[in-house]
Design goal:
Number of helices of chain A: 13
Strand content of chain B: under 5%
Helix content of chain A: over 70%
CATH superfamily of chain A: MetI-like
CATH architecture of chain A: Orthogonal Bundle
CATH topology of the largest domain in chain B: MetI-like fold
Largest interface: A-B, 41 and 46 residues
Helix content of chain B: over 70%
Mean pLDDT of chain B: 82
Low-confidence stretches of chain B: none
CATH class of chain A: Mainly Alpha
Order of helices and strands of chain A: HHHHHHHHHHHHH
CATH superfamily of the largest domain in chain B: MetI-like
Oligomer: heterodimer
Mean pLDDT of chain A: 83
Structural class of chain A: mainly alpha
Low-confidence stretches of chain A: none
Number of domains of chain A: 1
Number of helices of chain B: 13
Number of strands of chain B: 0
Shape of chain B: globular
Number of strands of chain A: 0
Distance between the termini of chain A: 17 Å
CATH topology of chain A: MetI-like fold
CATH class of the largest domain in chain B: Mainly Alpha
Structural class of chain B: mainly alpha
Shape of chain A: globular
Chain lengths: 303, 327
């Protein structure tokens, strides 16, 4: 860990002055919020979450409402983001889409990083046949683009089974991270505390879950954050073609697909959904990038 | 070197075979060609539907494994099967392969070369104006999905065309059908069609490569061998080009294999948005029409393309890094 000398120094200094030793989480949070990038990303992401989940309460229109007195109307006091061809309120439907996109992104990221952590650490800890099998599966999944496989499976995601879609998307995002985790596990395995646990007779799987994976936490947190944006981007592309989130559920990708047909003469049908998506991904990337710098100040400004 | 590549090649061949089989089984399970016939008006009798499906090896009442063996046997002999309404899959894809290749080749070359150059320039002058500008630009581009980018480019192009009163960019298809005029005019027409799809395909690649190359450049510039090269009297430019860039290219080349899959996806999206009749558009269409054999064939091509890219990156890696050749 590149951060060790700096943290040791902080601890020594703190002890010398008889103040509370700053915890690791506090140090990282401090570094994170000191950068402009981190503050901006966090503020954007937090306000997007608030808007997506609390914003619908502020508007009188629900997603299913259709205003038969306003078809394809530009933004106005009655409809803040305008209306669609069917009289649906763009504000309500965009926020519903944003909710789903954020939810899908978060769930996929947590799941795929979890799979990556377990697969990578088992491969790196046991080596031999376990390692060869897991890495072969990872190579196999890397050969076929996730987009293609999920598009083929799309008929299975109809009628509200979007959770199955989340699981399948997660199954195609873990491979690269698991390779990094495997490499780091191989070096952690040789540390004294792992050896000590092994000689005391602690079972291997407990060592992996209690000692190996927690030591990779910084890598995994950063990776999970960046996977959120990867998941949202893949979901958007799939939903654009109708292969992802399917009706009755709404996602930003589907809205963008519909909006792009009318974007030329009714820009509000396209730009609110597209803009919301871009800001979401941008803020997630900013947060992930600042987190990486905060965990690893040695590489400051590099990533 | 030959042994190293041969081992890789065998490994890749096994991976392609397994991946293609997996894709076929998935497609045969998830897609339902029977519904195409049942949806016809007037609805054909059940016996006719069964006979048609059985003829094209699409009958869902035959066990999956049996269908798979028939399909795999055909593929080994070079027969990719027929679509659900009887066309030869190989014929249809053959015509589309060229379209996709024209799009991808230009996208790859432009994306990787421009990305590496931008990243290298940014890395050499860290925190200069170019570095800051390219960092912000890369962040923004990476946040825009290809579907949105392609549509945004179309909107902008139409706006530009309207304001200039001339057709600078053409946003649909590969060439204007029935165009009069000589070869020069035809070429210009193709360039006008090609500009926006290539840009939407290459933009993401440029952003990824530039970030990656910049970081690698920064690592290498601090290395001892650069200082030594300059100390023995090499000019800065020679030291940077011959020693720094070459070393820093190695990880980018490895990365090429990983980005190729996303490039194929990007091509699918770009083709569909810009109305190019390539493999990607065919994939979307064949999934919508439950065309199992076409989907399986396209998956084979995708797997083959990804592994060819991996092989290319292995070879380039060996060329750039002598340790691979020896070790």
């Amino acid at each position: 860990m590149m951060t060790l000398p700096e943290e040791e120094f902080a601890e020594v200094q703190a002890e010398a002055e008889h103040v509370r030793v700053p915890s690791r989480a506090r140090t990282v949070a401090g570094r994170f919020f000191r950068t402009r990038q981190g503050r901006l990303g966090f503020a954007l992401l937090a306000s997007l979450f608030l808007l997506a989940f609390l914003g619908p309460l502020a508007s009188p229109w629900a997603v299913t409402d259709m205003d038969f007195s306003a078809f394809m109307q530009p933004p106005s006091a009655g409809h803040w983001f305008g209306t669609l061809q069917t009289g649906t309120d763009v504000y309500a439907v965009t926020l519903r889409g944003a909710q789903k996109s954020l939810l899908v992104g978060l769930l996929v990221a947590v799941l795929s990083t979890g799979v990556a952590a377990v697969a990578g650490s088992f491969a790196g800890y046991f080596l031999g046949w376990t390692d060869r099998t897991i890495m072969w599966v990872a190579d196999l999944l890397l050969v076929l683009p996730a987009f293609l496989i999920l598009a083929i499976m799309s008929p299975l995601f109809t009628s509200g089974r979007w959770l199955l879609f989340v699981v399948m998307l997660a199954l195609f995002l873990w491979m690269v991270t698991s390779k990094i985790v495997r490499g780091m596990t191989r070096s952690i395995k040789e540390r004294e505390y792992i050896k000590a646990a092994r000689f005391m007779g602690v079972p291997s799987w407990i060592i992996i879950f209690r000692h190996v994976i927690p030591n990779l936490a910084s890598l995994l947190i950063v990776d999970a954050t960046l996977n959120v944006s990867a998941a949202i981007l893949t979901e958007t592309s799939l939903s654009y073609f109708g292969f992802g989130i399917q009706p009755p559920d709404v996602s930003l990708g589907g809205l963008i697909a519909d909006g792009s047909k009318t974007a030329l003469y009714a820009p509000w049908t396209f730009w609110f959904a597209a803009g919301g998506l871009i800001i979401t991904v941008l803020s997630v990337n900013l947060v992930g990038d600042s987190l990486r710098d905060a965990f690893d100040p040695g590489a400051g400004g590099r990533a | 070197m030959a042994g190293f590549l041969l081992r890789r090649l065998v490994n890749y061949a096994v991976l392609i075979a397994v991946a293609a089989s997996l894709a076929y089984m998935l497609a045969a399970t998830a897609l339902d060609p029977r519904s195409n016939y049942e949806g016809r008006n007037p609805r054909p009798p059940a016996a006719v539907i069964d006979a048609q499906l059985a003829m094209y090896n699409l009958d869902d009442r035959t066990p999956l494994f049996e269908r798979y063996l028939t399909w795999a046997g055909g593929v080994v002999r070079g027969d990719l099967g027929r679509t659900w309404n009887g066309d030869l899959v190989a014929d249809r894809l053959g015509r589309r392969l060229g379209v996709t290749l024209r799009l991808i080749v230009l996208g790859v070359v432009l994306g990787s070369v421009a990305g590496v150059l931008v990243g290298a320039c940014a890395g050499v002058r860290q925190y200069g104006w170019f570095d800051r500008l390219s960092t912000v630009a890369a962040f923004v581009v990476l946040a825009i999905p290809t579907v949105v980018l392609a549509n945004m480019l179309i909107i902008c192009a139409i706006w530009v065309n309207d304001h200039l009163g001339a057709q600078i960019f053409l946003v649909s298809g590969e060439a204007t059908p029935g165009l009069e005029g000589g070869a020069g005019e035809g070429l210009l027409d193709r360039v006008k069609h090609l500009a926006l799809p290539t840009l939407s395909l290459a933009a993401g690649q440029i952003a990824v490569y530039s970030r990656y190359q910049r970081n690698m450049m920064l690592d290498v510039l601090e290395a001892d061998f650069i200082r030594t090269a300059m100390a023995k009297g090499l000019r800065r430019r020679t030291a940077l080009l011959k020693h720094a860039l070459r070393t820093a290219l190695i990880p980018a080349v490895t990365y090429f294999a990983f980005t190729f899959g996303s490039l194929l996806v990007g091509a699918t999206i770009t083709e569909s948005v810009f109305g190019w009749h390539g493999m990607g558009e065919e994939l979307v269409a064949s999934i919508r029409t439950n065309d199992v054999n076409s989907v399986a064939a396209i998956s084979c091509f995708a797997a083959l393309a990804v592994l060819l890219a991996s092989l290319a990156s292995d070879v380039l890696h060996a060329v750039l890094d002598p340790r691979v050749r020896v070790g």
